[in-house]
User: What shape does this take?
Amino acid sequence: NSAAKAPPTPSPLRFSKFFQSNMRILITGGAGFIGSHLVDRLMENEKNEVIVADNYFTGSKDNLKKWIGHPRFELIRHGTADFELCGNVTEPLLVEVDQIYHLACPASPIFYKYNPVKTIKTNVIGTLNMLGLAKRVGARILLTSTSEVYGDPLIHPQNESYWGNVNPIGVRSCYDEGKRVAETLMFDYHRQHGIEIRIARIFNTYGPRMNIDDGRVVSNFIAQAIRNEPLTVQAPGTQTRSFCYVSDMVDGLIRLMEGENTGPINIGNPGEFTMIELAETVKEVSFNLSASPPGCESGLVYFLSVAHCFLLINPEVKIISVENTPDDPRQRKPDITKAKELLGWEPKIKLRDGLPLMEEDFRQRLGVPRKN
Ligand code: NAD
Ligand code: UDP
Ligand code: UDP
Assistant: This one.
């Protein structure tokens, strides 16, 4: 029956049941890892109404289950009767909102490379649509860009004035060039139409609710350690990344949205690790060494602590070297001077303190309790 399949005419979603003084906030990609933590934080404020648009490509309704049915929360269904396309930002979207956090885009290399044309459409058409929406309703819009805009960086650490070293035709380009175009669109709408924009350049972020098998390095290593599988360090293993815990990230994004600066502003943790160091750290914390033992810093206590660490490292977990993928950036570390000065923001959670929180979440989801 063709009438049943006809797409419904989109009509603006209004929240007339709420007081006008409430802040209406759209989060695209709100069912994903960072997006769902952002939803949690924004829902804590009773003056916020949160609307999520997501096509569930890499996100899940499970991440939002505590809010489904809440009177200040709404999941968008629009555009077409096809489930896959519900909440897809590549379709025009009509909602009445005050702020837009535009996160929709797969972030894990295996997912963004899986359908690169879809990734670039999400970045380009999706961002264009969200800017058209921001223009129509006069909303402020924040884009979650990425440290990938710096490509394989030739300066270290990376500050926001660096223009980057990106391969425009490589397998990662759908993501990094896609985000670069998204940034360009943001600034063109700002200059041409006076749209209030905010751009965050996010560096590698980790924490509970990451997809267990999404292929990113921290989720891979933690899942592998819990399953007693070898940790797969991609060659050469000396490449570096800097890992930010998700609660710090969400705090930085909200400060940027609420502040006066357009950005781009780096949001990330400057603590830099080689992938070999990361594997060793995961191996240690996955065997109950969640934080540096007290008094670790000096003399005999330090010696005993290190000996204790070696005894406790899970001997069954091996670290192996595997082949890398093309165009893997060799080093990455944010210069966060701007975030400190303009947003009063810096990360609080160290890698060694964040990893056990993520491990606990993974153990619960994998059904593998910790052996003590
Ligand atoms: P994620 O994959 O968990 O979340 C992305 C969400 O966007 C998912 O829920 C997915 O279903 C949704 N989505 C994808 N395509 C869509 C589309 N066309 N329409 C609607 N929804 C769509 O990733 P994440 O780690 O939460 O990343 C969120 C944002 O932060 C992304 O924009 C990403 O580029 C950026 N970012 C993340 C990191 C990181 O380390 N996590 C680093 C740099 C930038
Ligand atoms: N758009 C949208 N929601 C809106 C307003 C616009 O999704 O509330 C989309 C619209 O479909 C268009 C894009 O945003 O594809 C850019 O809109 P804009 O008005 O800037 O450009 P134009 O429609 O004039 O090309
Ligand atoms: N990596 C690794 N083992 C894995 C997955 C990734 O050594 O199982 C490496 C990868 O080569 C890269 C780094 O970890 O150097 C970060 O990769 P990820 O996919 O997490 O994020 P990226 O920063 O590349 O987007």
Summary: Confidence is low (pLDDT under 50) at residues 1-19, 289-313. Residues 109, 204, 216-217, 220, 232-234, 239, 241, 275, 324, 328 surround uridine-5'-diphosphate (ligand 3) (CB under 6 Å).
